[in-house]
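Entry type: protein chain
Record version: 2
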Amino acid sequence: MAELTGQANLPHTSWVERRAPAGLRPYLKLARFDRPVGTWLLLWPCWWGLALAGAEAWLYVLFGLGALAMRAAGCVVNDMLDRDLDARVARTADRPLARGDLTILQALVFLALLLALGLAVLVQLPRDAVAVGAGSLGLVALYPLMKRITHWPQAFLGLTFNWGALVAWAAAGEGPPWPALALYAAGICWTLGYDTIYAHQDKQDDARVGVKSTALRLGAASRAWIAGFYALAWACLAAAALLAGLPWWTALALLPAAAHLAWQVRTVDLDSPPSCMAVFRSNVDMGWLVVAAFLLAAWL
């Protein structure tokens, strides 16, 4: 294996190591079931859309299952395409395909099962929502390749990861899509911020192996750009609430989310992988703050 630099994955004693049967562990790790932050980040735009639309509780459960399956499927596709690169980057060198714990055929069979589960969830939604959901397939297929083509793969991740806001709005049947489009824009800006922070963990390895990212493109200016991305995200969240007919003071209810984003910008050490990871993970809290603001405004 090529010499590794940067931050390796910290020793991980998740429920997978503690409780899962040995034969299942590589599959669970491949799907990142031991690292749920990505599932939350995929789910939040869906739940934001449902909260904005005043959707019924069963849709929250359905979108939760869908996010779990589709995030896992995305991880499998990503690792199949990146297994050679992953083996040369410290943080990803212990992924099952990079280590050779699973074969490509085994990964393909697992991927088929995950996609079948995702499809089973999708077809429970209204026809319009199914059509909108199917529209994301091209983005899902293209995103893993973007780091080889552009310094802005984080933008493509934003387009892909936040598509659920559009699906959720369609599932709730709430008419004109303008609130959902504003919510989608908010999610894209949010993703540009948090994934730029995430990418700073790997900037040394990425530069060495030829992988592109906003962390490398923006460099020392990253903090200012992240602040700008987050400011736009908050503004679009407020705009989405107003377009959905929520009261003007919903913007005030969103101030805790703005404060959390400001805390991220102020405290993250972009040259410290542990700091980047900790701040990145805190975006799970950001998702809760936005859902709480929307539900509070709708309830009152």
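Comment: The first helix runs from residue 15 to 19.
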